[in-house]
Amino acid sequence: MFKRFITHSLNILTLFSISISAQIEENSDEPLIIVNDTTATIIDTTVSVDTDTTSRGLEKEPELKTFVKASYPDSLIAAAIEGAVSFELLINETGKVDSIKVIKSLHPTLDSLARAAVSQFQFTPGIADGNPVPVSLVYDYHFTLEEIITEIEEYTNIKGIILEKGTRVPLSDVMLSITMKDIATDLQDSCQTVVTRSGILPAKRYFDKIGSFAGQSLEDRSIITTTDSAGNFSFKSIPAGRAKLKVVATGYEPYYSMIEVSDSEVISIIIRINKIAIDDFEITVYGKAQEKEIVQRTLQAREAKRVPGFSGDAVKAVQALPGVARPVFGSTEIVLRGADWDDNKYYIDGVEVPYLWHDLGNNSVINSNIVDIVELFPSSFGAKYGDALGGVINVNTRKAQERTHVIADISTGHASLVLDLPINRKLSFVGSMRREYFMSLVALMLKQFDAGLDFKMYYWDYSLRMDYKPSNDHTIFCEFLEAKDILEFTDDEEKENSLEYKKGFKLGILGWDWAISKTWSNTFRYGLTPLSNVARFEEEKYKVSGYEHTVRDELKWKISEKLNATAGLDLHLEPTDMEYRYKGQIRTRKNLTPRDTTINNKADFLNGSVGGYVSVEYNPIEKLTIKPEYRIDYYPGLNYHGSLLPEIWDYESKPEFRWSHEPSVRLSTRYQLSKNHLLKSSAGTYNKSPGFDVMEEFGGNPLLEPARGSQYTLGYEWQISDLISLDVSGYINRQWDKSHFVDEFERGDGYDVGTLVNRGKARMKGIEVFLRHNQSKRFSGWLSYSLSYSERYNYKEKEWIVFDRNILNNLQLVSSLNLRRNMNIGLRFQYTNGYPYTPAKKVLYYDASNFYYVPEWGSSNSKKHTPYLELDLRFEKKKAFKRSIITYYVGCDRIFHFLQFKLKDNGEPLYLPSEFPTYNYDYSKFEGFANFPEPSFGLSIEF
User: What is the pTM of this model?
Assistant: First the structure.
């Protein structure tokens, strides 16, 4: 019953609907069906079809079969006018549009254009009772910019590269922005348009679209992009017109430029931006890396070159560190923790070198522009280094930069040239050459003024390094360097007064680093050094020639996270030929009467050692590290019975073995109190070959044994902040069996006068404080203080006396301040006690035969020179050009020494920093010699 009711009701509604449609369409004999609320989307235009859902007699709704796109005027597109025009359409039984009525207007022009398009639509007819019927429907014609925006062409019309000004280094991750000059600040303004390849479009919609292209984005009204790893950048589909280009990079000055953009051609740009601080090390380095040794101080070359007082020499800058005594004027001696200067060892890239400084000019034998880092071990070093009682200095050179690079440097003392030549990612070369010329100019001037002196005095050095990396696991390099000092002097009036001094060495190095696996690695170094040293004065000539062979190999094994082991070979042999010639009068301590003598001695000698060592680094708990080490050195040039028992102190007796070898043990510990506080300690035994002192032909003793010693250190480290650290160390060192020259005062001790014996003794102790501020954007520097006391046993006076080079207090303040416009000013202040000297008490008599006064000397080293004050300044200014950087630098060393020229009322200098104990002719007045202030200047060109 209910089903019949529903069916009957629906039939009534259908007839009602048909009757209404018949009234609307008077010319139609067929019933009309009105369809509402139906939406259709045609291509890119949204079509809404509303169908009367109550007309259940309509079996099939009309479907749009042919769509005609309406014109969309550019003026209205540019005005961003979009939306829908609603029509009421009458679709006849053939599917054509018979009538159109606008029921919702958008814009008069768009209304007309839409009406014209809709009138050409073709629909499928509506079906009712199986027959086509006219249908009335509502249709929305949408005008939208989406289709136009989607069709915007993506093309590159701006591209380029960002380079660092001066160095030409490509810069990655640099941000660039393009802002159209004629676009108002507010992109939301619907009236703004841009001219594009697609026509005139609303600015906002266009920039929204190109801002979505890969590699660029839209921020405010600017298109943003960044450079890739090679410094390249590009902008896509930037509209034609004037645009502002902006470059922003951390650490660089902002760059701005106006460019004329074209949409028909590509603009290529090379942009060079200025670095705020033109330096390799201006990047802030936070924290203090854990050192390999208990006492190890490391200087980066860029930082070390700026330390005033050392003429830009990165290696000499170690003299500003704790544990290093102030050298005497004109000397290349490096006294580390009170040890004799010849107790030290010097290395370049892990290979031992005979010396590290030129005698003439006082510069290091390696150009600072190819130095990477300088490592100083004042004492307490591990088993890796042997045959040394003092300390160790290791200089690591750098490989070539990633681009061809030239550095030409000229200063008041020398000129140098450095070339970086990268071949590819695996192979590169770096070379340098340098020559001292100041004294050559002085010699030339003297010759022009006919001063009667003919002399040559200069040094030169050069180096060449090749690096090859065949794979990630292997790194190979070879290096060759040579250094030479030349001094020749002739007096034109007295031809017999001549002097010839030549000193030099060549060094070839082969290095191979091999990462065998994640747990095994090996480091190999081989060095070959031909020696050639000549000294001649009048009829006396001394010549040394030979070779030095160095082999160093170290194998490391990471057993676990808590346990590491190392085994190494350290071989350094010096087969040497020595020759000494003398003709003239001579007197000895045994025979004081001068007599004519001719000496012609030649000898062959094998100096050096063959060492092996093992060490284990163990972390029993997280905070504690223990490192025991054992080393044994065999001395093929010595003739004595060695021992397998390390000599921790001066044993009266010990078990002896046949071979001339010397064992040593070393132990170091570290305990991390907390994140920023560390305790450290070390103890060990050390030994040193007597070297050429065993040459009997030259007054030596072939039965000499190695000198022996022990070193103990206790230290504390505090990482105060990311940039500031404090290192405090105390040490006690002992040395015995040192090569000792017996004089006439030891006759009663059973030794022959004039011989060398293992009798020398030394002892040292001190405290060192190193407060360091690591390099930040503006400042770096440190405060260094050494309280050191070093003694030698004097067999004449039967007591310990102060060492000749002992300085009780050594305070230094070093600072480097980066100013604006790439300027830097450095300062170094130093205060030390004066060196000790032996005073003359009174004159005993006048020697009429030799015309000089003979004094009575006081106690050895019982007096000190005047306290030493030094103030050094250095100013540097860098200027970057397109392809080069010029650095100007000026400085003055020993500014306080100007005070020696200002006299007090009594006629004495206001301040006289004496260097040598000098008296007048009758010893009535002390006349200490002082060095002079030294101004310097120069310039460096990099391209």
Answer: 0.78
